[in-house]
Design goal:
Shape: globular
Strand content: 5-15%
Largest sheet: 11 strands, antiparallel
Helix content: 40-55%
Number of strands: 20
Structural class: alpha+beta
Length: about 700
């Protein structure tokens, strides 16, 4: 196995302002620092990441493991997306206090709402531990032997690392297993909801505008981190106090204009930038269309019922958003791959790679990789789609099947270890209670009828009339009694007996076959990454996203998605009013916002043309997980809040193209305008540091 030092030895240090890439913040000195300077940055690498002094990284938090957040005041005030805090806003909502519809603003610390289970995690330091992790790993080992050695080495490193008692560690793989980094982290668990605009602002445009531009969505929410009296992480307590951060981001009142430097700092989830052409073709021609069809069928039922009932709207708001988000993203991804001719471009790159192997006399060692990919994906395609179809139906879209899936796991655990019954019962009760908090059997039955035909010809909707799972009380009673009694009742339930054979087949046939074939592909992908860096050492290689802290830099730029169409990089409040449709599920607008617009009561948040900016575009390379990431200007100030990408640009997870890939950010002046003029939450404005870097 080749170490990543191959990469460091051979990369040429270019000074051109190349864009694209998700860079490790501890490795920015040199080429990345110069590129940022060429794009207009005034920041040094140490301004961004410094172990010994406060730096920008100290203000960037991983929000609940799936989004990004940033600290924007000396009192631990945190900003993230509305959609990132959506489930917390929903959990505090009811018909009496509909915070989704009306918004929520705590006018004092005492009014801020706790959120059990919510956490924000900060990076204390990052260390390269590649040599230690790969110690003893040889090319002759099987993949399982390699992973066993890597796991053993990693556990040893984590056990010996120097850290504070309240800190944690994790080791993550980079460059497909060619490099490893250790992360020392601090996790805060007392996170309280401070403010959120109504969904008519925070989710304005909903599904229609999702993944597209021009965008007019105020996609933000505010939380606060609380710590113990020593400013250390602590579980929720009334005695906790607002956290004093090592660094917080000043907020710029000057906004952006085309060509301005932007840096997005956050925790991107996953990307696959080094896939072979055959993989991209499989994903866009077969895998994505299958998933799109299932989610489209589910959304047809959910959307119809949400529009007909406020109760269902509240219950299904978070689920609908989660299902719709990926559905539309996959559609855009396919469009972008086609528009950019990505498959053919990747094949052309592979021809260059093959030629380089021949020139460097590496054909014997690496020449079989691309032909192997072709063979492996032909064998992998069907099982990959079948497995994902199961996940889409049993884990994502249909809740009755989800409950039976969890019940199957319960049965397997108890059968294997009867002594675990009490523990498993507590877990099962919590799962059922969580599902039924936002459950409607009629809606779920409609989803079942629509999605199940994508998986099986045996579609029996009568199970909804016979099963105990559709009612919380009867579902909980299923698990009352001795282990023997519970398992007997469970196996007599209509829904469980219907689903069990399919779940059994998933665990014993589908998933094992998938894992076997995927393991071989994963190992080949690691070898391919190594071969690329050896054969084409002058190419730019950034590590794929893996939910670790990354920097991506670019500029404010408009774009042309199709012939004769060009989008300016900034949208305005005027566009919100233009799109306004009274009473519409997606485009309604609060009367107070209309009144402010008509009175031109904008405070200090309008631009030089007297208009309030809402969103803007950048060339930053982002993905899922970057939601809530700060958009930082050339001086280290907060100018925007990342929340989306343009539709065709969602392909950047596999193929970043600076011509059409754009990220979408909420302008901080719109955030401040809503907090101040709309909500009257001036106490929050008062604790921020507002600056004028351009003046």
């Amino acid at each position: 196995m080749k170490f990543i030092k191959i990469l460091l030895l051979f990369i040429t240090f270019q000074v051109s302002a190349q864009q694209g890439g998700m860079w490790i913040p501890s490795l920015l000195e040199g080429m990345n620092e110069q590129e940022m300077t060429d794009l207009g940055s005034k920041l040094t690498a140490k301004d961004i990441y410094d172990v010994n002094n406060s730096s920008l990284k100290d203000a960037i938090g991983h929000f609940n493991g799936g989004c990004t957040s940033e600290v924007i005041s000396p009192k631990g005030l945190v900003l993230t997306n509305h959609h990132c805090g959506f489930s917390q806003i929903q959990s505090h909502s009811s018909l009496e206090n509909d915070y989704l519809k009306d918004g929520f603003w705590a006018m004092s610390l005492e009014e801020e709402l706790p959120n059990p289970g919510l956490f924000i995690e900060f990076i204390v330091r990052i260390e390269d531990v590649t040599t230690q992790v790969l110690n003893g790993v040889t090319e002759e080992m099987t993949e399982k032997e390699k992973q066993s050695t890597i796991s053993k080495n990693s556990n040893g490193i984590e056990a010996e690392v120097k850290k504070e008692a309240w800190q944690s560690t994790k080791i993550k793989s980079f460059y497909k297993g060619n490099q490893y980094f250790l992360f020392v982290t601090e996790r805060f668990n007392d996170i309280r909801l401070v403010g959120a605009p109504p969904s008519s602002i925070g989710k304005f445009g909903s599904d229609t505008d999702n993944w597209v531009f021009p965008r007019h969505t105020g996609d933000f929410s505010m939380f606060r981190i609380y710590a113990d009296k020593d400013n250390r992480p602590a579980e929720y307590s009334k005695d906790n106090v607002p956290y004093k951060p090592k660094h917080f981001l000043p907020v710029s009142l000057d906004g952006v204009e085309e060509g301005d430097f932007t840096m997005v700092f956050g925790f991107p989830g996953t990307t696959d930038e080094y896939l072979p052409a055959v993989a991209i073709e499989h994903i866009t021609k077969a895998y994505n269309p299958s998933n799109i069809a299932i989610r489209e069928a589910a959304l047809e039922v959910i959307d119809k019922n949400m529009k007909a009932s406020d109760d269902i709207r509240i219950k299904y708001a978070s689920k609908q958003a989660r299902i719709a988000n990926a559905w539309k993203k996959w559609i855009g991804e396919n469009l972008g791959i086609e528009k950019s001719n990505a498959v053919e471009q990747r094949r052309a790159f592979e021809a260059t790679f093959t030629k380089a192997l021949k020139e460097k006399e590496l054909e014997d060692k690496y020449g079989n990789i691309l032909p192997q990919f072709d063979v492996l994906y032909e064998k992998f395609a069907d099982i990959n789609i079948k497995r994902r179809n199961f996940i889409e139906i049993f884990l994502v879209t249909n809740e009755l099947m989800n409950m039976t899936f969890r019940a199957y796991q319960f049965e397997q655990a108890v059968t294997k270890n009867p002594e675990s019954f009490d523990k498993e019962k507590v877990s099962m009760d919590a799962i059922l209670t969580g599902v039924h908090k936002n459950y409607n059997a009629k809606v779920d039955k409609g989803v079942f009828v629509n999605v199940m035909p994508f998986y099986t010809d045996n579609v029996d909707a009568t199970i909804y009339d016979k099963t105990a799972f559709v009612n919380l009380d009867s579902a909980l009673k299923l698990f009352d009694g001795t282990p023997e009694e519970v398992l007997k009742k469970l196996n007599n339930d209509a829904a469980y007996t219907y689903a069990k054979p399919m779940i059994d087949n998933f665990y014993n046939v589908i998933n094992p076959e998938f894992e076997m074939k995927n393991e071989i592909i994963t190992a080949l992908q690691t070898e391919y990454m190594t071969a690329l860096m050896v054969a084409l050492p002058d190419a730019r290689y950034f590590p794929d996203a893996n939910s670790t802290l990354r920097v991506t830099y670019g500029q404010v730029r408009g774009y042309s998605p199709r012939d004769a169409v060009y989008y300016e990089p900034v949208s305005y409040l005027d566009g919100v009013i233009e799109k306004y449709v009274p009473g519409d599920y997606e485009f309604d607008v609060p009367q107070r916002l209309i009144d402010l617009y008509e009175a031109k009561d904008y405070g200090p948040y309008a631009d030089t043309n007297g208009k309030v900016p809402v969103c803007f575009l950048g060339t930053n390379h982002t993905t899922g997980g970057n939601s809530g990431s700060p958009a930082i200007d050339a001086h280290g100030n907060l100018v925007g809040l990342n929340f989306d990408r343009v539709w065709e640009g969602t392909m950047s997870d596999m193929n970043y193209d600076p011509e059409i890939c754009r990220n979408i950010m909420v302008d901080m002046r719109y955030v401040l305008f809503i907090v101040d003029k709309y909500a009257g939450a001036t106490r929050l404005i008062d604790e921020m540091k507002l600056v004028h870097p351009k003046k």
